[in-house]
Amino acid sequence: MTPDQMRDASLLELFSLEAEAQTQVLSAGLLALERNPTQADQLEACMRAAHSLKGAARIVGVDAGVSVAHVMEDCLVSAQEGRLYLLPEHIDALLQGTDFLMRIATPGSANVGPQDIEAYVELMARLLAPATPGASPVPPPVAPPPMAELQLQLQAPSSEPAAEPNPETLLPEAPAESVAAPVRKGSRLTEGGERVLRVTAERLNSLLDLSSKSLVETQRLKPYLANLQRLKRMQNNSLRALESLNVHLKEHALSLEAQEALEDARRLLAESQQLLAEKTAELDEFGWQASQRAQVLYDTALACRMRPFADVLAGQVRMVRDLGRSLGKQVRLEIEGEKTHVDRDVLEKLEAPLTHLLRNAVDHGIEPPDQRLLAGKPAEGLIRLRASHQAGLLVLELTDDGHGVDLDRLRQNIIERQLSPAETAAQLSEEELLTFLFLPGFSLRDKVTEVSGRGVGLDAVQHMVRQLRGAVVLEQTAGEGSRFHLEVPLTLSVVRSLVVEVGGEAYAFPLAHIERMCDLAPEDIVQVEGRQHFWHEGRHVGLVAASQLLQRPAAQGSQQTLKVVVIRERDAVYGVAVERFIGERTLVVLPLDDRLGKIQDISAGALLDDGSVVLIVDVEDMLRSVDKLLNTGRLERIARHDRPQAEAARKRILVVDDSLTVRELQRKLLLNRGYDVAVAVDGMDGWNALRSEDFDLLITDIDMPRMDGIELVTLLRRDNRLQSLPVMVVSYKDREEDRRRGLDAGADYYLAKASFHDDALLDAVVELIGGARA
User: Fold this and answer.
1) Residue 126: beta bridge partners?
2) What is the domain range of residue 681?
3) Same domain, 281 and 339
4) Which of 106, 91, 111 is nearest to 154 (CA)?
């Protein structure tokens, strides 16, 4: 606080501020003492904190605080003097006293009644009974004692006070629903003497919005500077042209007035060029300085939203320790990267999923001490949480050294819940099995406890991480532990995106959801089950037009390749065809007006460097739109009119066969001969392809599901547009009546698969339509 604020504040407010700082010292010190009860520096720090709180409580007349702090100080002094060896039950009691002190000092928190204080003082007296003068100190225990009745009296981990704010940033307002963060009033002084003020989140967002707009506005000077440079070059060319004209006119006799007018024109043009050069240089310098100041302003405003990752960890170490004790386990949490800075909004939304994962690691991962010792592990389990920055993302790795996931039990659980047939479940890989753990309502626990068993933990984690536009992956090693890998954006205010053009307008795809970008040649697009696909990383990926999804007019370009953005959300992968890649941009997210409601496939807006508006795509919503179009059969094919002229001259053949082997064999044979080949999996698929695209030849099987080859040929011959299309039937049925049946239906050529070989098929194709080139 400032001196003026300290004069205005009440003693209770000052006591609350001191209690907040001292209880943090106590919590950290006591957890360290639990691992090493004779650590002198931690004993000294905890004793001083308890002593300071006792004095502060006495000054403000809070007798309950005096009583609690006094017995805590007695316990710590006894440990300092060697009359008492701190056992886990002593640490439990001291942590309970820390919670009591914080509740006593925090206005509006749950009250601590006199009976609670009396019970606590009596409990501490029983624990300190062996530490009377003359008594010998308690020897160090070989193994942790069983849980005492004190454990039932421990307060919830949420009573742990929040960590100190970052001194270099403004202190954002704590969320109303946060129980862990006590109410702070007024401003504060950091350890370095700097003032830390509280501002509302709305005001901070407004500041960031204004700073981002000012940054964009400075970029609009660039086109003006470019035009001035162009004008400067035009004037320079004009002056040279005038000089050249003057040279030519010297051969002719000019009047004095004409010579003076020509000289005046040269002089005025030279002066205007000099003035333009000076003003252009001044504007260029002004634009550079303005952009630098706007960038610094934006970076500073953005930094105000950034807080150290340690802020979300308040109470997590204590929570892990207390939960482990309640389950009869010894667990320790180690944290790396506490100073990693993350956006305030991201931190607030990370607290719940991290708590879920930590509780899951303690309950499901870490084994009881006796099992760990039998497995050759130390009795104390270790959970390690590491935070770091990688490529504009916050990367969290949560590992434990427990027993990992029992894959056989998981597979049996999947079968019992009828989530997969036994035959399929037996063939699932480890990665596929682990994905079932993220399903709603799925749990490996047979009974519901206070900690787990309801199947909402990992499902909730995945849901909350997706809301942050992030991803979570689980890996495990049997007998050695599990590893959760989380990736979320550092900030929700800024998103790194790929900006593309669709229907003459700019749209942005967040990079976190982009698998890759690629240029597809027309021959790379194949027809599978009535839809267009292309080959990507060993699998067929569906191809959709961004113009249809975003309801924009399709471009009539002449590009030789198709620009495709491959997007992924969990197991769903699709290629989205766009008109042009504009480039990668870091965009400041501008929320859409609430009155617009939810706009399909769009999450927010942003401004590009030139001030134009770009809409940010909601990838998850877009994938739902693709599924809807597929289910309703309204997915449009992407036209191939933009193929190169040389490729357009290649003859196209449609191969229809329900056998993948036969279908691929025929396709490769024809491709190697130079033909352009599309495939269909049955007669219905082939009929849809014939109606939507142009072909020079149809090669079809007879026995196929949904629609056989005879029906397909019959429909084709009844269609006015397709009735002249050459048709070849390739079938296992080589009887004369089968051959006659195919030819009677309208086939031009009948080839039996029993006598099928490479030359026979290719010779028949050449006989029907000639070579691959027109």
Assistant:
1) none
2) 649-769
3) no
4) 91
Alpha-helical (H) ranges within 306-440 are 316-326, 344-360, 369-374, 407-416, 422-427, 430-435
> Are 466 and 506 contained in the same domain?
no
Distance set, CA 704 to CA 108, 681, 690, 709 (Å) = 74, 8, 17, 7
Q: What is the pLDDT of residue 755?
A: 58
Query: Which residues of the chain, if any, have pLDDT below 50?
Result: 1-9, 131-187, 191, 448, 453-455, 641-648
Close Cβ partners of 238 (under 8 Å, ≥ 6 residues apart): 269
Give every CB contact of residue 471 below 8 A, 6+ residues apart in sequence.
Answer: 465, 486, 487, 512
Could you identify the residue written with the tokens 């993220």?
Answer: 438
Q: Are residues 155 and 13 in the same domain?
A: yes
Work out the number of other CB atoms within 10 angstroms of the CB of residue 721: 10
What phi, psi does 291 have (nearest 5°)?
-65, -40
Q: Which of 162, 192, 218 is the last residue of a domain?
A: 162
Neighbour-count burial of 730, counting CB atoms closer than 10 A to its CB (0-12 exposed, 13-18 middle, 19+ buried): buried
511 and 441 belong to one structural domain: no
The residue type at 439? L
Verify that 585 and 659 share a domain, yes or no.
Answer: no
Whether residues 609 and 725 share a domain: the answer is no
User: Minimal CA–CA distance to 238: which of 269, 213, 259, 215?
Assistant: 269
CB 339 within 8 A of CB 310: yes
CA distance 715 to 221: 63
φ, ψ at 543 (rounded to 5°): -115, 125
C-alpha–C-alpha distance, residues 440 and 547, integer Å: 34
**Are 563 and 689 found together in one domain?**
no
**What integer pLDDT is reported at residue 168 of this predicted model?**
36
The CATH number of whichever domain residue 758 belongs to comes to 3.40.50.2300
Q: Torsion over CA of 272, 274, 279 and 285, rounded to 10 degrees?
A: 160
User: CA–CA separation, 244 vs 266, rounded Å?
Assistant: 11
Asked, for residue 225, whether it belongs to a domain, the answer is yes
What's the DSSP call for residue 644?
-
Segment 5-11 long-range contacts (CB within 8 Å, at least 24 positions apart): 5/186, 5/187, 9/185, 9/186, 11/59, 11/60
Q: Which residue has the tokens 């449609």?
A: 654
Q: For residue 744, how many other CB atoms are within 10 A of its CB?
A: 11
Question: What's at 403, amino acid-wise?
Answer: H
Quote the strand ranges of 529-651, DSSP E: 531-536, 539-545, 562-569, 572-578, 580-588, 602-607, 613-617
In angstroms, the Cα distances linking 138 to 64, 97, 132, 649 are: 29, 22, 12, 94
Q: How far is residue 60's CA from residue 71's CA, in Å, rounded to a whole number?
A: 19
Tell me if 476 is assigned to some domain.
yes
CA–CA separation, 55 vs 44, rounded Å? 17
- Point out the domain boundary residue: 162, 181, 210: 162
**Residue 653: predicted pLDDT:** 92
- Sign of the CA dihedral running 267, 271, 276, 278: positive
Q: What does each C-alpha distance from 712 to 630, 651, 705, 735, 743 come to in angstroms? A: 23, 21, 12, 20, 13
In a domain, 349, yes or no: yes
If one counts the domains in the chain, the total is: 5
Bridge-partner residues for 567, per DSSP?
Answer: 514, 574
* Two structure tokens written together for 688: 């849809």
Q: What is this structure's pTM?
A: 0.54
In Å, what is the CA distance from 267 to each residue of 260, 270, 432, 765? 10, 5, 80, 79
> What single DSSP character describes residue 599?
P
- Looking at the domain assignment, is residue 406 inside a domain? yes
Residues 443 and 560 in one domain: no
pLDDT at position 186 is 41
Please spell the DSSP secondary structure of 717-764, one letter per residue: HHSTTTTTS-EEEEES--SHHHHHHHHHHT-SEEEEGGG--HHHHHHH
